Amino acid sequence: VQLQASGGGLVQAGGSLRLSCAASERTFGDLAVGWFRQAPGKDREFVATIRRSSATYYADSVKGRFTISRDNAKNTVYLQMNTLKPEDTAVYYCAAGPPTYVRYYFTTEGYNYWGQGTLVTVSS
Q: Is 39:89 a contact under the CB 8 Å cutoff?
């Protein structure tokens, strides 16, 4: 499965962006899809994930501000990011993985396929 992340850009604090993760195969609907981010000099961290059942999970730092959703007909997962903060600045990666225990989705272990990343820059 090939993943293509897009939608990043430069936005002022308090603004919004919507990231998209498009997949190359229709089996995308059978996979969990997550978003991770990596800021300069920091480790890659979990942001949000959506399971095959459409159950969603979020990092505490983005809860209430970010919303993950999926459109299986379009083989696409979205990350709507509102009330952006400078600390949200990072390269955002989407990833997909087969059904597994929930705890694995909060780490990179739960995902077999990764997109190339899209840069989000939030200015203060």
A: yes
In this predicted model, what pLDDT tens digit does every residue of 4-43 receive, in sequence order? 999 999 999 999 999 999 999 878 889 999 999 999 999 9
Count CB atoms within 10 A of the CB of residue 81.
Answer: 27
CA dist 117 and 5 (Å) reads: 6
* Mean pLDDT value across the chain: 95
Q: How far apart are CA 73 and CA 44, in angstroms?
A: 29
Given a contact cutoff of 8 angstroms between Cβ atoms, the answer to whether 62 and 45 are in contact is no
Please give the structure tokens belonging to residue 66. Answer: 């970010």
Residue 71: pLDDT band with limits 50, 70, 90? very high
Residue of 116, 123, 114 whose CA lies nearest to 17: 123
Q: How far apart are CA 17 and CA 120, in angstroms?
A: 9
What does R_g of the chain's alpha carbons equal in angstroms?
A: 13
Count other Cβ atoms within 10 Å, centred on residue 76: 18
